[in-house]
Specification:
The radius of gyration is 15 Å and the shape is globular. Helix 1 (20-28) runs antiparallel to helix 3. It has one domain: Gcn5-related N-acetyltransferase (GNAT) (Aminopeptidase, 3-Layer(aba) Sandwich). The chain has five helices and seven strands; from the N terminus they run βαααβββαβαββ. Strand 6 (140-144) and strand 7 (150-156) form a beta hairpin. By secondary structure, it is α+β, with helices and mostly antiparallel strands. Bound molecules: coenzyme A (COA). Coenzyme A (COA) binds at residues 34, 37-38, 88-90, 95-101, 123, 127-130, 132-133, 136.
């Protein structure tokens, strides 16, 4: 598990209007691997930018801020369901330092606090970093999605599970 003193210097906060420059800087720094696995055709950049200007009530986004820059984010689609869909990304130069775990723990706690039944997500079959993170956090791989390129992951909360 993550050590308690890890990433204590970051702030995790809700996305707000005016965050566009932080977001664009985050995505501009993304290298080829992350773009291919996470941000094909700028899909996720457009999603989070749109949420700044025209927020949808069935979505939640949280940004991780370090030294005034966005270093990661985590979000839910279908937040109005019992099992929302999660997305997550960490700035390329900070990958592999357990910031993904930190953000994931935050998002899991939010879902539990809001009475959700679990979390669903998909990830590219080639996204070994993502799969390692989801395995480490207790997700179960449910198999390959119909499109043949995405794995489906599910984390079902148990009644007695506490906030992390
Ligand atoms: C996927 C992503 C969010 C993971 O975050 P991260 O901060 O890099 O991951 P962490 O450092 O928290 O690592 C989580 C676990 O995965 C393991 N891991 C990390 N990188 C790994 C790698 N390249 N290969 C195998 N395992 C890896 C870690 O060892 C850790 O497990 P442990 O604590 O039991 O050792 C991040 O790499 C990322 O943003 N990638 C680009 C965007 C993306 O792919 N998003 C997900 C789309 S579904």
């Amino acid at each position: 598990m993550i050590q308690q003193n890890e990433w204590n210097d970051i702030t995790i906060r809700t996305l707000k209007a005016g965050d566009e420059n932080l977001i664009n800087d985050f995505f501009d720094r993304m290298g080829g691997e992350s773009r291919a696995l996470f941000n094909r055709r700028d899909y996720n950049r457009r999603g989070v930018l749109k949420q700044c200007t025209k927020p949808l009530s069935d979505r939640c986004y949280w940004l991780a801020i370090l030294d005034g820059a966005m270093v990661g984010y985590v979000f839910y689609l279908d937040w109005d369901t019992g099992v929302p869909e999660l997305g997550i990304a960490v700035r390329d130069d900070l990958r592999g330092q357990r910031l993904g775990k930190r953000l994931m723990m935050y998002a899991i706690d939010e879902a539990k606090m809001h009475g959700k039944g679990g979390i669903y997500l998909t990830t590219h079959t080639a996204n070994l970093r993502g799969q390692a993170l989801y395995d480490a956090m207790g997700f179960t791989c449910m198999g390959v999605a119909k499109n043949g390129t995405e794995l489906m992951y599910l984390y079902r909360f148990r009644n007695n599970e506490s906030i992390i």
